[in-house]
Amino acid sequence: MRGLSLAFEVLGGGCSCASGFRRVRGWCDFGVNKRNSPRLPLALILSWHVTNTGASPDSIAPTPLTPARHPYAVLRNRDLLFYLIGRFVSSVGQQMLTVAVGWELYERTHSAFNLGLVGLTQMAPMVLFTLPAGHLADNFDRKRIIVATTFVMACASAGLMLISAFGAPVFWIYFCLFVAGSARTFLWPASSAFLPHLVSREDFSRAVTWSSGSFQLSSVLGPAVGGAVIALTHRAAPVYGINAAAALLCLTLVSFVRRQHIVALKEKMTMRSLVVGFNFVFASPIILGTITLDLFAVLLGGAASLLPIFAKDILKTGPPGLEFVQTSFPSLFKAGLDASAMRLGLLQAALPLGSLLCALVLAHRPPMQKAGRNLLWSVAVFGLATVGFGLSKAFWISFLMLFICGFVDNVSVVVRHTLVQLLTPDAKRGRVSAVNSLFIGTSNELGGFESGFVAHFFGPAIGQAIATGAVVSVISGGVGTVFVVLAVAMAWPQIRKYGRLDGAAAP
Fold first, then answer.
1. What is the spatial distance between Cα 151 and Cα 29, in angstroms, rounded to a whole number?
2. CB 197 within 8 A of CB 63
3. What pLDDT, in 10s, does the model give residues 130-166?
């Protein structure tokens, strides 16, 4: 019955509705009279510029901010709108760059090892610079950090464009990726800690929902646009150039944001100040529990890294539409149109599409009333849907399971990100955000490795097919995720009891 009540909270009506689920990375909900929502786009166009409705939960910024009352009213906040558009444009460019880097490296080296080095190159700055990045975000103007790091990322993309255009050694590609990864490591905590300054405390979860939805939309559009540009030009350089332009547009829009992060008291960079974020996380049961839940759920539930195996060796029949095209136009497939690649593309789109729908649903719901319980249910459903995906042999059932994973993942991300920011004092928000980013980044990379290792161990390592190992890996990961939920719920009962997500009431 609790599962049914959760579904009602996400999709149903009434002031007591809520929602909660797991793993996207995003932006949130709003509230006024929902019955008038069809007219809001016009109202938004006419009035987005008139008000700046947002302040940090602990902001010392001067203007008092009132909470938005309609699902789209928060977008009338000029600063938030500039920020969201800028981040969306930048994210689309980054998604395009990811496609281009993988394509170019494989075209030039034909080496899976070189592809694997991309993840290592991007994870290394996270490990090296997370602590100083958090310190910087708490002791300097966060908006300026966002602008500066985005400019560095634009320069790195311009460098990639020149390297690709002139055929420079592959080493320089990794060098530019390391520079971009370093800039991104400093960008993440500053950006996460800056968002609460743009909206009122009551509207912060709504801003998180819109941020998450924007990111998921970019995850759908970016790879598609990047692949289309490469297909048309047969080169990666134009994609790098587009990403550089997107980064410059992003920093321009963010520079238009009027709100500033004012540092009340600067701290010297010492080992004690660097570990403040870790100390605060371990001293806060709710933050530690939510980060731990996300860490192990991502680590165990990494089915996405095994999608190529499912697309090629397990879901061989494909969707009915694809089968019709394959039967009606066999010459297309003989000419090189890869049916498994089309299945893979559809499966990869299922996760962000589910997350995007969730963001739209949350944007039209009142603030969550039982956020902690919803968070736990969301991760549990994520694990069960992962098991369902592993058991499925039918394409559309597999697609549905991934869609559900994406949907509940986004609810979980909204809850987790909102709790981390609202429960952290502004003076420590950058360092805590850096710790959160470190756990997210490393768990994503290690989750893919764990899934691949288990698939190999229960597949070729014992004489079984790789498909068998992939199924075992996904199912065991989903079951493990459910057990993680049970363990976290028992270890940190404060999470189960946490109530409103809009910050209006204490947990």
1. 30
2. no
3. 889 999 999 999 999 999 999 999 999 999 999 999 9
